[in-house]
Each structure stands twice: as C-alpha cells, then as structure tokens.
Design a protein that fits this description.
By secondary structure, the protein is an alpha+beta fold. The protein folds into two domains: 174 residues, no CATH class; 145 residues, Nucleotidyltransferase, domain 5, CATH 3.30.420. The protein has eleven helices and 16 strands. It starts with a strand and ends with a helix.
C-alpha cells in the first residue's frame, strides 16, 4: 500500500529563515518558468516550451544565481518545474474537455507553501530509528531539522515534502510497500447515512453528533476577518499590523481544519474496529454544493427571479463544514489497512424509500427528521431509514458478487 505520514517540524530560528528562503526561491523559479511559457506562446509563433526544455536550463540558472538558486537541491527544483508542467497539462485537458480552463497563474510568496524532494537521499534524508520519538530530517541548504515523530513510519520512503501551514512547518513522507495490519474479524456489517443534523447515522440506529467546528468558531473568525478587511487595499501586505491580522485568520482556519481531521480519524477508527463491512452512500460533494443557476426574469430585462441561493448557501456551508469527502477518504484508507471491506452504493432516494414496502415518494420524508411511508404507514427517523436502505443495497451488491 501507499501511505503518507505528516509530522510537525521544530526548526530553530535560523532554520525557519532558511525554510522561508527556500519557499521564496522555489516560488521565484515557478513564476519565472511560467513567464517563459507565456512569452514563448505569445511572441514566438505560439511555440510550446516543455518541462524538458526548462529543466535543461537549471544548471545555467543555478550558476547565474548561486545565492538564491544554487544553494537548493537540484531535484527539488526539477519537482517545482514538474509542478508547473502538471498545471499546464491540466489546463489543456480542461480545454479539450470543454470545461472552464483556468490558465495557470503566478503564485505569491505567501501562497507557495510546499517544496518536494522526489527521492529520499537526493537533497534530503530521513534520519530515523524505530525506537526514537524525536528524529531529524536533513534538508540541503537548511540542515538537520528536528521532527516530532508521533508514530512509526512503515514501508519505504519515496518522496519527502516540506510544507508550511500558517506559522507551522511539516514534513510529509510518501511511502510505498506499507504492510497491511488486519484486525480480528467481528462478523458485523453496517450502513451509514451522512447528514447535517447528525454527522452520520448507522443502520443500528446510533447517531454521531455533528461537531460543526466552523459554526462553533464563526463569531471569532468573523471578527478576525472584519479586522483584516479594515486595512486599505493600498497598504495591504506592507504593514506589520496587516500581516498579523492575516496570520490570525489563517491560524483560526488551521485550528478548524485540524479539529475536523482529528474528529474524522477518530470516528473512522471506531467504525473500522467494530465492523467487517461498511456501506456508505456514493456522494458527489462538489455537485451537491454548487450554487443554484440564476433564473432570468422574462418580464424585466436584467433582473432575476428568486432561486433560493441564500438558503442553499447555508446548506452548502454546513455540508463543507462536515467534510464528508475527507471523512470517506480517511475511512477508505483505514479500512484498506485493517482488511475491511468498503461498499459505496447509489445515494439516490435512500431517505425517500420505505425499507418495509419499498415505496418511493418525496412525501415519505415528512420533515428533516421524520419519515412516514404514505403507502404502508411505516414511521421512523429519516436518517435511520437512509442508513438501513444503504445497508440493504450493500447486501444486494454482496449477493451479486457472491
């Protein structure tokens, strides 16, 4: 299996400056390569500049600017150029597919937060022993940086990435050949229904409360964002007070993100430990959180009819705050490691189908919480009905496989 390990770095003050310089110089390389591609396309008869062409120029760039480019790992700079090349490949792929293309943009220093070393031992080295909690990672141009290794690393380290999140630094290890750790069989199977009122409901009737981390910190976050917006646009990014206000907003978002991820990991671990088979809805979160299409008013030119955009915005915010996609990804990874089976099923009408008689109708869902079948009169909690239908559909899938 392929797994990623993310550990907190504890750099010294001098190492922090060096890490910041490393991000700045890689950002400069990225923007310079992007500018070269733009100029070549616009002014040289639409000539295409490829990764191989720009990678061949790295030796000259490093020799020309040894203080800013020559001090960093050659392979990490190649990885930055590959990053730009992937952005262009994605751009042309969207053009061919007829989607909104989104041409690659220049990156600000504050928005370029990751440097990747493609191979352990080439510009970086992961120094670790199995029984040490504290370890170090060696980075060219930075030195040996302390790492808080809170769990053992398994498998073979393939790539090492350094990432900045707010004022914190992390090292991310991508490992392959990670062995599975199967858990003892329980013989239990469960279906789960994702929701907003409850984070999830299991087919056995258990509800997991929705912590609503973003909602809980909404007032504090709104105050920090209001303070940030008071700075005139012409002075932004130029004063210490503005930078401090921006750091506070980023710190609050980082705290919410870490709380949500911690909750997802703990909830997924409970499900994986207690069940051999876990069935869930196949959700398209991106489609569910799209804004409603504007409806033009045919009687008044330039005006639009009400389309429920305000109410939909609140629902979208609640869905994104719950983080269903991230949770299902974490659950799938833990299930694979533990030797459990994950079964995604069609999510359509799971909360509108009667589990007793099979009648499907919009009217069956009387309220957000109440389900009452208009055909046979069966009544239950709507989320519990949805989880039961998910379990039933997973049973059909298992029968087909068998």
């Amino acid at each position: 299996m392929i797994r990623a390990y993310k550990f907190l770095l504890r750099p010294t003050a001098r190492q922090t400056v060096a890490l910041t310089d490393m991000l700045r110089d890689h950002c400069s390389l990225y923007n310079g390569a992007l500018q070269e591609r733009r100029d070549a396309y616009r002014h040289t008869s639409k000539t295409t500049v490829r990764y191989s062409d720009q990678s061949a120029q790295l030796k000259e760039i490093r020799a020309f600017d040894p203080e800013r480019q020559g001090r960093w790992s050659f392979s990490s700079q190649q990885a930055t150029l590959r990053r730009l090349d992937r952005a262009f490949q994605a751009f042309f792929g969207r053009v061919k597919a007829g989607l909104t293309p989104g041409y690659p943009r220049f990156r600000g220093v504050g928005h370029f937060d990751t440097v990747t070393f493609p191979k352990d031992g080439d510009g970086c080295r992961w120094d670790s022993t199995p029984h040490e909690r504290q370890t170090r990672v060696r980075l060219q141009g930075v030195g040996h940086v302390r790492v808080h290794r809170h769990r053992p690393v398994q498998g073979r380290v393939k790539t090492v990435s350094v990432k900045r999140e707010g004022n914190r630094w992390y090292v991310v290890l991508a490992c392959d050949e990670v062995p599975a750790e199967p858990l003892p069989s329980t013989g239990a199977i469960v279906g789960i229904d994702m929701g907003v009122a409850h984070f999830l409901t299991a087919s056995d009737g258990e509800h997991v409360a929705n912590p609503r981390f973003l909602h809980a910190m909404a007032d504090e976050l709104a105050e920090a964002q209001r303070h940030l917006s008071t700075f005139p646009r012409r002075t932004r990014q130029r004063t210490k007070r503005h930078r401090a206000a921006a750091r506070k907003v980023a710190k609050l978002h980082g705290k919410i993100r870490r709380q949500r991820a911690d909750f997802h990991h703990k909830t997924a671990r409970i499900l994986v430990t207690g069940h051999d088979v876990i069935a869930h809805e196949r959700l398209n979160t991106a489609g569910m959180t799209k804004s409603p299409t504007p409806k033009a008013d045919p009687e008044q030119l330039g005006s639009f009819l009400p389309n429920g955009a305000a109410a939909k915005a609140g629902l979208n915010r609640s869905i994104l705050d719950a983080g269903w996609a991230q949770f299902l990804g974490i659950l799938a990874n833990k299930a694979e490691s533990a030797g459990r089976l994950m079964i995604p099923v069609d999510a359509r009408n799971t909360s509108r189908t009667c589990p007793v008689c099979g009648h499907i109708a919009k009217e069956n869902r009387a309220t957000q919480e109440k389900f009452q079948c208009t055909a046979c009169g069966f009544a239950a909690n709507a989320d519990h009905v949805g989880a039961t239908n998910v379990l039933n559909r997973a049973g059909l899938v298992l029968c087909d496989v068998a």
